[in-house]
Amino acid sequence: MCYCRSRVSFKKIKIKIMLIKEFKRPISNKIVPIGPGLNKYQIILATETSCDETAAAVVLNGRKVLSNVVASQIDIHQKFGGVVPEVAARQHLESINIVIEEALKQAGITYKDVSAFSSTVGPGLVGALLVGLNAAKTLSLVHDKPFIGVNHLNAHVCANYLGSNFEPPFICLLVSGGHTQLIKVSSYSEQELLGETLDDAVGEAYDKVARLLGLPYPGGPFLDKLAHEGDKKRFKFTQAKVDKYDFSFSGLKTATLRVCQQFKEDELPKADVAASFQETVSETLIKKILIAAEENNVNKVAIAGGVAANSEIRRKLFDLANQGFEVNAPEFKYCTDNAAMVASTAYFLSNIMEELDIEVFSRVKSK
Ligand code: KG4
Ligand code: ZN
């Protein structure tokens, strides 16, 4: 009996050693031809799991979206009033294979047709990022195709190429839940950070003010809707005085809180507060885009990120066309987190190296 047991565990150990050997095989950094200018069709399958959306997409030559599948976890996190990292990671694990299979099916292709695999490597929630990254790396190993790791912020900017003919050079305002940045896109492979928020990101400010107004998570879209019913001139908030390309929203958030505290809860003019807040934010953002465009002598402007879905910011941005600017904004479904933007970035920003040894990271290094 005792002898039998030891034989079983010996077998197990042998299998374990074999598996480790298999995955420790050296990774070659061979040159892989991916990217524009190669005169051929390139199909990239990408994953995105940096926060609370499990996404996979198939994109042809960086612009034509063959499929874009997003499984949102919003319902799950809503009851906590924000994203719970551990819950997000577990949910990604449950959904990732289904989402990838669905993306392939909707694109009408098989793994044989894929030129390269890609995924977001950061910034984001580490546990969540690891799920999408390991899924894409594994597919790349199994099918012996290149893997390209993508920065989530570069990807939001590249969403401007999806389904459009928009081309660099342009100034892009990236506004998401975690970031607010002004970026100069000089060419497909160059994205230069001009300035960013010194405190809260715009999406974060939207979500916090929305919570003050008793709106559900994530508050941005709800606040945007409510603002349409309000008087944007009722409350005058001052814009933060910071360096020309930088932003600050914590003062505005506090000023909004002070206004809310002046009213009894059932008398709070929620729509007026929302409209006044939205007016200040959108005016600030457009003013900064204009400064960056004029000082860098660029006549094309764009927005990106979840907050780029905001109706007032889009309206003011498209008004710039009357001042001679060429304007672009991604379709709504490509503003919030998705994998099509990751596939596009892998195509346009790929450094043509296999990157199977790349690791995830949670935060961007400051400039
Ligand atoms: O880019 P994204 O999907 O995730 C991050 O990378 O952070 O952005 C999510 C953010 C949330 O803060 C959400 O409230 C905000 O985008 N958002 C909006 C709107 N739609 C999404 N904020 C204002 N107006 C909207 N219509
Ligand atoms: Zn994002």
Task: Give a quick summary of the entry.
With 367 residues, this protein is an alpha/beta fold. It is 41% helix and 17% strand. The chain has two domains: 2-163 and 336-347, Nucleotidyltransferase, domain 5, CATH 3.30.420; 170-330, ATPase, nucleotide binding domain (Nucleotidyltransferase, domain 5).
Identify the bound ligands.
5'-O-[(R)-(carboxyoxy)(hydroxy)phosphoryl]adenosine, zinc ion
Which structural category fits the helices and strands?
alpha/beta
Give helix % range: 40-55%
Mean pLDDT: 88
The CATH topology label of the largest domain is: Nucleotidyltransferase, domain 5
Shape: globular
Low-confidence stretches: 1-31
Radius of gyration: 23 Å
CATH architecture descriptor text of the largest domain: 2-Layer Sandwich
Biggest sheet, spatial arrangement of strands: 3-2-1-4-5
Domain count: the total is 2
- Classified by CATH, the class of the largest domain is Alpha Beta
Tell me the fraction of residues in β-strands, as a range. 15-25%
Features:
single chain, 367 residues, alpha/beta, Nucleotidyltransferase, domain 5, 2 domains, five-stranded mixed β-sheet, 11 helices, 10 strands, 41% helix, disordered N terminus, binds 5'-O-[(R)-(carboxyoxy)(hydroxy)phosphoryl]adenosine, binds zinc ion
Account of the protein in words:
With 367 residues, this protein is an alpha/beta fold. It has helices at residues 2-23, 74-78, 85-107, 126-143, 152-158, 202-212, 219-227, 250-261, 270-295, 311-319, 340-349; strands at 43-48, 53-60, 64-72, 116-122, 147-151, 170-175, 180-187, 190-196, 300-304, 326-328. It folds into 2 domains: 2-163 and 336-347, Nucleotidyltransferase, domain 5, CATH 3.30.420; 170-330, ATPase, nucleotide binding domain (Nucleotidyltransferase, domain 5), CATH 3.30.420.40. Strands 3-2-1-4-5 form a 5-stranded mixed β-sheet, sandwiched between helices. The longest helix has 26 residues, at 270-295. It is globular. The termini are far apart. The model is unreliable at 1-31 (pLDDT under 50). The site of zinc ion (ZN) has 6 residues, from helix 5. 5'-O-[(R)-(carboxyoxy)(hydroxy)phosphoryl]adenosine binds next to helix 6 and helix 7.
